[in-house]
Amino acid sequence: MDKSTNERCLKRLTKIEGQVRGIARMVDEKRYCIDIITQISAARAALDRVELELLEAHVTHCVTSAIQSGNRADQRTKIQELIEVLKRARR
């Protein structure tokens, strides 16, 4: 992963961490359920954006490098990893 992707993901994850702490506070304060659910949805969407950015970086760098290398075993491994992560994401 390149440095800029790493920094963007870490920045987003730090914000998400704060969101989750805020959600825990809302639960502790017995806030309105719908407000808590709304915040959970927002945190989930933020995690989805990080996941997509990491997936794009993986395809752009790791999978592309494996294809360009000509190493069939590495190509199969990277493609299989990609398929597995996409399967898990659809659950």
Instruction: State the major sheet.
Output: none
Radius of gyration: 18 Å
Helix and strand content put the structural class at: mainly alpha
SSE sequence, one letter per element: HHH
**Distance between the terminal alpha carbons, to the nearest Å?**
26 Å
Number of strands: 0
Poorly predicted ranges (pLDDT <50, ≥5 residues)? Answer: none
Count of helix runs: 3
- What's the shape? elongated
Q: What number is the mean pLDDT?
A: 94
Tell me what you see in this structure:
The structure is a single chain. The chain has helices at residues 3-28, 33-69, 72-89. It is an all-alpha fold and 91 residues long. The protein has 3 helices and no strands.
